[in-house]
């Protein structure tokens, strides 16, 4: 399906996140090891926070490994929060408006997975989006629909609860259409200050997702690895696949769970959808 990565920490060059790791997201766009598809070449996107009031987004329908502009930009952008995504379409068009991350105000959103039966349920799902938000939807993906449902259900004020209500609604609509397992997802969303992540599927067999070990512990395990000394102490990664093979560096996000990353706020909790009404 897709692969994504999220970074939170001290400002760092985007190229150090996207290109430098031995199994970087750019490498995963060609050689995914854990994804449903080996190649993720149906476009890509990067979202990051800088000096503006809203995050910047760069998207293209070109394969990530073949975009010279991405490499140019990545060598000049320094950011404390970045979301990046390489896409393998699950049936919707390969067009810029369907590439992740999706943006609303200060919020970014990426997703790996699918809302099964989306062709049949799409009308009902979109009808539930807050009218004031509906006009902002530009593409045709299930991911953007899920994002705007989460916004409708209160993402800005209550990310955990809003995503639980959005997923519960999607499952309720899917079941009404005879879809056995409507939701398959790993999701990351951020407002630039905190990062929230989710791993859930209706059949409890979710796509892969990992978070990085706390940096001081990792430095103690691997004092010989120079790159660990270059990273800030607040460094946190959440990734579809580990970015390098380093023992003790990566921890699987538990099935049916959600987490938050930010200054003084790293925590994982169980995740269950909240059914409508």
Which helices and strands, and how do they pair?
Layout: E1 2-13, H1 14-18, H2 25-31, E2 44-48, E3 56-60, H3 68-74, E4 78-87, E5 102-104, E6 107-115, H4 118-127, H5 131-134, H6 142-152, H7 159-176, E7 183-190, E8 195-201, E9 210-212, H8 215-221, H9 226-230, E10 236-239, E11 250-252, E12 257-261, E13 267-270
Antiparallel strand pairs: 1-4, 1-10, 2-3, 2-4, 5-6, 6-7, 7-8, 8-12, 9-10, 9-11, 12-13
Helix pairs in contact: 4-6, 4-7, 6-7
What can you tell me about this protein's structure?
The chain is of the alpha+beta class. It has one domain (2-270): Glutamine Phosphoribosylpyrophosphate, subunit 1, domain 1, CATH 3.60.20.10. 27% of the residues lie in helices and 28% in strands. It has 9 helices and 13 strands. The strands form 2 sheets. Strands 3-2-4-1-10-9-11 form a 7-stranded antiparallel beta sheet. Strands 5-6-7-8-12-13 form a 6-stranded antiparallel beta sheet, with helices on one face. α6 (142-152) crosses α7. The mean pLDDT is 95.
